[in-house]
Design goal:
This protein is α/β, with parallel strands linked by helices and about 425 residues long. The protein has 13 helices and 17 strands. Bound molecules: pyridoxal-5'-phosphate.
């Protein structure tokens, strides 16, 4: 059936599971840098970037060239069958980026959820303990372990149980919603006192800045307290950097804002500029705990993904993208603050590097979340030519995750589009 007879969005409804939601009713024809074009020829500024995957932008010419070259050499081997330099080179670089002078090792997988799964396996194998503590509002993927660790009921956990056992959730510090560092630490102690003894806990997993949960940064003092406590109790600290990694927060990794050293770090998304590869990077003694054969996966650390990631790392250096992330964040925050003073539906604006968000409420005093207005703003922004998506436990937060290669002029343009969207929906 030709596309003229049946528009693509209807074909999508007919052929694709309702279980996968699509934020925007458009069909993409092509993309480059910070832009994408739909099949009607309309151009958009892409402030989603495949949900934080395209920090180097769509189709960065150097990534395309690196993948093309790799494709001419070999596209798949499977590291369980034979080694290849690209896998080892990438591991060596990540080990140094995460571990500094300490001995860290890596293993590569394909998706973020798989990286999370493997981080938990490694922590359990090393500690010989079952328990895992995660955070309310956290998001760690859609596999059994990923959704069990995720701290949001709908739509991620609902109807998919029974969930994986031995997982306990505590509040994530969020000053705007009344959860201080102290309160979150008290909740952690309560879990030890009432649900699982600390010496049965293998790991605590935390996003240094919650992504899907609403772009909320854990205060540095909380991260430091968590590090101290986990060290005292022999609990592994896992930082899930799948969304916060590769410059998004104005540092290479989110944990670097607090100066702590995690035991394990999960990476994916912007690691490889759009190619599917993920990994776990961790202290050597932990990474060596599973028996040979216990980790891996057919496509894990695929050569195309490794080649792309190696080029992404070079691009980060040559184009100063971590610095650029901070500048983008400052520009967005200045713009958001002006909008906050003009539009009463905006309850809170926040940026940490180029991880930027605007939270909508029905009333600034009660802070009641307003998901409906957030959705109307997103739809109106799309009409203006700006693509953004929502996040937050209450889905009332609009998140901005633009490619870091974006120009200052395009950030200003995006702010103008967002402002016109706010006017259009009478925010
Ligand atoms: N962890 C975090 C922090 C994420 O943001 C995501 C995806 O959004 C995941 C894990 C899951 O990654 P994937 O969708 O590649 O499985």
């Amino acid at each position: 059936m030709s596309s003229q007879q049946k528009p693509p969005v209807s074909a999508r409804t007919q052929h694709i599971s309702n279980g996968i939601a699509t934020a925007h009713p458009i069909t993409v024809a092509r993309a480059a840098g910070a832009y994408l074009w739909d099949d009607q020829g309309k151009k958009y500024l892409d402030f989603v970037g495949g949900i934080g995957v395209l920090n180097v932008g769509h189709n960065h010419p150097r990534v395309v060239e690196a993948v093309r070259k790799q494709l001419d050499t070999f596209s798949h081997i499977c590291f369980q069958v034979a080694a290849y330099d690209q896998y080892i080179d990438l591991a060596a670089q990540l080990n140094q980026m995460v571990g500094g002078a300490e001995h860290y090792k890596s293993v590569f997988l394909t998706t973020g959820a798989e990286a999370v799964e493997n981080a938990i396996k490694i922590a359990r194998a090393h500690t010989n303990r079952p328990g895992v503590i995660a955070f309310r509002g956290g998001f760690h993927g859609r596999t059994l372990m990923g959704m069990s660790l995720t701290g949001m009921s709908q739509p991620y956990r609902q109807n998919f149980g029974p969930l994986a056992p031995d997982i306990y959730h505590i509040p994530y510090p969020n000053e705007y919603r009344g959860v201080s560092t102290e309160k979150a630490l008290v909740a952690l102690q309560e879990v030890f006192d009432t649900q699982i003894a600390a010496d049965r806990v293998a790991a605590i997993i935390i996003e240094p800045v919650q992504g899907d949960g609403g772009f909320i940064a854990a205060p540095a003092e909380f991260m430091r307290a968590l590090r101290k406590k986990t060290e005292e109790l022999g609990i592994m600290l896992i930082c899930d950097e799948i969304q916060t990694g590769f410059g998004r927060t104005g540092k290479l990794f989110g944990f670097q804002h607090s100066g702590i050293q995690p035991d394990l770090v999960t990476v994916a998304k912007s690691l490889a500029g759009g190619l599917p590869i993920s990994g776990v990077v961790g202290r050597a003694e932990l990474m060596d705990a599973p028996l040979p054969g216990g980790l891996g996966g057919t496509y894990g650390g695929n050569p195309l993904g490794c080649a792309a990631a190696l080029e992404v790392i070079k691009i980060f250096e040559s184009e100063n993208l971590v610095e650029r992330s901070r500048a983008i964040g400052e520009q967005l925050l200045a713009g958001f603050e002006v909008l906050e003073s003009r539009f009463k539906s905006i309850g809170h604006v926040r940026t940490i590097g180029a991880m930027a968000a605007v939270e909508f409420v029905t009333d600034r005093t009660s802070k009641e979340p307003d998901a409906a207005i957030a959705q109307r703003v997103i739809d109106a922004a799309r009409e203006e030519g700006l693509l953004v998506i929502k996040c937050g436990v209450y889905r009332n937060v609009v998140r901005f995750i633009c490619p870091l290669v974006i120009s200052e002029q395009d950030v200003a343009e995006a702010l103008g589009m967002f402002e016109r969207a706010l006017v259009a929906v009478k925010a």
